[in-house]
């Protein structure tokens, strides 16, 4: 029974490490997305509402990641307690079942976070497209304004010449 328990602990540790790696990857992706969003907001004249939307997305992702980190740390502490304590076989089995359930829940949370990150990536791409369109529109409007100003200046000069000749 102890050998089985030890093997199960090792399996759970491996599973936990895999979850930690996935969590760190999610955190890195989220941080990178946050950086990209920050760069986008710096490089354009977006409305404050768009900036706050990006900020809220980053805060939401960060909050979820922190919660997952806490859950993961709790699982690690429980595993360590199981190693340190000399529990009976039955108590160990019950604890392992409980840990397995917690690991499954953590896996689901990580999957949800990854889905959220994918949605945020798509949203960021949509925002980038919108920004590019806005920049093109702005440039076109600047060209039109330049043309209109030049036409107005010519009309003023023509009017002044006409006025001086009379």
UniProtKB/TrEMBL annotation:
Transmembrane segments: none annotated. GO terms for molecular function: dynein light intermediate chain binding; microtubule binding. One of its GO terms (cellular component) is centrosome. Keywords: Coiled coil. Residues 58-151 form a coiled coil. GO terms for biological process: cytoplasmic microtubule organization; cytoskeleton-dependent intracellular transport. Signal peptide: none annotated. It comes from the Eukaryota. PANTHER family: HOOK PROTEINS, PROTEIN DAPLE. This is DAPLE protein. It comes from Nyctibius bracteatus. The lineage of its organism: Eukaryota, Metazoa, Chordata, Craniata, Vertebrata.
